[in-house]
Amino acid sequence: MGVPAAAVPSWFQRHRRTLFICSFLVAPVVLYLVYVISPYIQAFQISLTDWRGVSGTPNFIGLDNYRRLFDDSVFWKAVTHNAALLVLLPVVTIVIALFFAFLLNVGGAKGTSGIAGSGFYRVVFFFPQVLAVAVVAVLFQQVFRPDGSGMLNGPLMALGVKPIGFLSDPGIAFWSVLGVMVWQAVGFYVVLFSAGLASIPNDMFEAAQIDGAGRISLFFRITLPLLWDTVQVAWVYLGVLALDVFAIVWVMTDQHGGPDFSTTVMAAEIYRNAFQYFRFGYASALGVIMFFFTVGFAILSLRLSRRERIEY
Amino acid sequence: MSDTPHLSRRQLLRSAALVPVAGALAACATPAPQTPASTAPGAAKALEVWIFDGGFGHKYATDIHQPLFKTKYPDVAIKHNFTKEITKVLQPRFAGGNPPDVIDNSGANAMDFGALAQDGQLQDLTPLLDMESWDDPAVKVRDTLDPAVIEIGTYDGKFSVVGYVNYIYGIWYSMKAFKDNGWQPPKTWDDFIKLCETIKKSGKMAPFTYAGKHPGYALDPILVTAAKIGGKEILLNLDNLEDGAWKAEALKESATRWAEIGAKYLMEGTAGLDHVQTQTAQNKYQVAMLPSGSWLENEQRTTTPPGFDYAMFPVPDVTGSDKLPHGALHTQPGENFIVPAKAANAKGGMEYLRAMLSKKAAGEFSQLVSTVPTVKGAGEGMQLSTGVKSASDAYAAAGENTVYFRWNAWYLQLKDESAAATGELMSGRLTPDKFLERMQKKADEIKGDSSIKKFKR
To answer: Is the pLDDT of residue A178 over 90?
Structure first.
């Protein structure tokens, strides 16, 4: 009381700045904790029980669900499908998107502008991105129909070719799913790469051309190295897409991931076990495994993408 | 001025931070401990009804059942709801301990009865059976029902599921197409093959199809044919997960026969079409026969051309020394109504079921949605459509020789495996032996899995 207030700053005044910053962080951090972190923790907790989703008193069963999971051939089949997508989806999508982006921006005759009509194509390529995944899935069910009404099989049958079971032949269905995912993803990455290309100074292309570079060496010597950062970002995005693919498989394929589980993925097995078999405990265990796969992928891709930037 | 709430920046932030916390406590994914609902004081309060809005729609509830219920209980406020997604809407209600009072737990997204029974979520409806029926105080509800309803609705010795509709399975065709072409519904397997040949050669339409995307449709005649050859215990053994049940000789014989149909007589593209597409193809006279059940006629109401005249025949005789005589039939009560054990007004829910099971309600229902009800005599004096008549006649002719199976409702994993494997069998990628081997393996797996509750019949 006797001490003058101005001489020693109060606790509040000393921490004013920190408090001010924290007050802004509280809301997003709480939201994140409640809606992201706590469900994760709950999933770990549920995965140790035999909860079937309807009772209020699940029993703790330790690691039984994880032990069971190792013998679940369907789940491991799903994992291999995710793994295949993890490799194929980014490669195919990035190659096609790079090709298109190159043509749209610097692939023209002069080498510094796009091919004729590139403004139009730019819009068209983006269309699939605008459609909801469920819409795309239903749309492609019709495209892939195995009779005369199918968009692909109709012309084939008119030519006297036997219809192809795009979704009904277990040997083909997975490739159909991959095809649809690529179809839908390419547009976005064309835009992403176009933006990357736009930030490359035009004089680089001009200089290379004066030195006699053709379109191909222009692409591999100038475009690709300068776009490398963007390609890496695309790789991570597409990897995540490949790991958590669900809706396209669940809606489009026969028997939700069939025929004969030939297209099923981890997320579909989680959903099937939770909401069809009512094995929420087991489904949570599958979710936990998927969590580790995803975290593993994230760490790996962060490690691999640490690389010197090219300054220009 | 003084009424204006003053909200400082800090208060605002504090309340903003608290909102999600409160929300999270309410929306917790982990189950909340449940307190049993207080004993229901009769039907005299609100009654919450959920109807599966599938092939039968939900109008029958608001137009027939609820007005009838109201005649006795005018003060009860009925909260009528309908959905195609029973599980999505109602599973959280069960987990939260406040399920509704009556549920039509049907359709592809129905809740797993095994899970509900395992957790004691199903109200024991035995008292309902012993109540006097709605129409006649001298007759108990038990005696108005097809006995199969009680048999099939019993889980763990407690009658808890009311199947309202009698599904009658068979091979469906158009009487018009058969009459115009001089084809006859076959009695024996040889006739069946001959008929398929004739149709194929005629070039007018394909002989046979099934919902290729949902191969369960093709599995049904395979199992019924097996039961016909080897007797009812074939299916009983499957249900009870007996060792080697799927390796029975009769099943092999049947699977071999049907695989031949799959190899030779299917409509082009069958494997990739669903039930709506194949049934529509039949309506367009592109295919002659398909396996389905007595809901088919109503399901196809909008696409069936006039004069199509649906009819069905039971699976044909196979060996000449089949254990079950000609006409043996798969019938099974479906459209399953339950009352949750923890419902706030479980007693009211039972009263609602009692009203539904009256002759008047069941009869009007069956006429509205053209189907065969499980309430005895409810169809009497009603104008029947050709399909319902054909199914009812087949049912009457079958007498004692009706069969059913329940493993596909008890063990959904086995059901999914059977769909996958049947698809492979019918498209020739699995031999009958491999098909049965695969089914046996999955059945053994389920038998050995302690986390899956087992049922017996």
So the answer is: yes
